[in-house]
Specification:
197 residues; mainly alpha; de novo design (two linked rop proteins); 6 helices; 0% strand; rod-shaped; disordered C terminus
């Protein structure tokens, strides 16, 4: 049997198998990282949803005491509605979607801050057990949001590294894989707020 006759075919098949294994490995790793990102994004949304669910209870509790704070209460309700209307597709997150989501959530944070500052004028409300419990839950939720956002950013890094390093970036472009945006601080967050008494 003439083995040399088949040697080029065997070498070609081995080379094709190696290239196929390498290319599919890159794609499969990107898919795994993408699934981690989707899970992390789901956790971010869950944390924000918890805050959104607390807002009606907080507003109703404040309403009973703070009749003069109607504009502040309305601002909180409107910010909540705007935040819940912004949706992001975790499989195709763009910087624009992330910016719109962050801006809407920043609006909720700002409105809640104004509401909590206005509560200082109502000592009976500040002593109300329901309000204190809601305030504690809101503080806990803000910590959960921070943790979820941090973990989301941690999930983004290996994915972006995987598809941006050479020669993976060539195949990533062929597969249509794109870099995903990180959560960034809201505009103006680098400046300390001015507190007035």
């Amino acid at each position: 049997m003439n083995f040399r006759k088949f040697l080029p075919w065997i070498i070609a098949l081995v080379v094709i198998f190696i290239i196929y294994s390498w290319a599919s490995g890159i794609y499969n790793k990107a898919v795994t990282f993408d699934q981690n990102i989707k899970e992390s994004w789901g956790n971010v949304q869950t944390a924000y949803q918890r805050r959104t669910d607390l807002i009606p209870n907080l507003v109703e509790t404040v309403k009973g005491y703070a009749k003069h704070e109607q504009t502040t209460l309305t601002a909180v309700i409107e910010a909540r509605a705007k935040a819940t209307s912004v949706t992001v597709d975790p499989s195709n997150i763009t910087p624009e979607q992330m910016a719109a989501f962050s801006q809407a959530q920043s609006g909720v944070s700002s409105a809640l801050s104004r509401l909590l500052v206005s509560v200082e004028q109502y000592p009976d409300l500040k002593a109300n057990q329901n309000f204190l419990k809601l305030q504690d839950e809101l503080a806990s939720t803000e910590n959960q949001i921070l943790t979820a956002r941090t973990r989301y950013n941690e999930a983004i890094k290996p994915y972006n590294n995987n598809i941006n390093t050479f020669p993976r970036n060539i195949l990533a472009g062929m597969y249509g894989l794109k870099e995903k945006p990180y959560f960034e601080a809201a505009a103006g967050a680098d400046k300390a707020p001015s507190v007035k008494f």
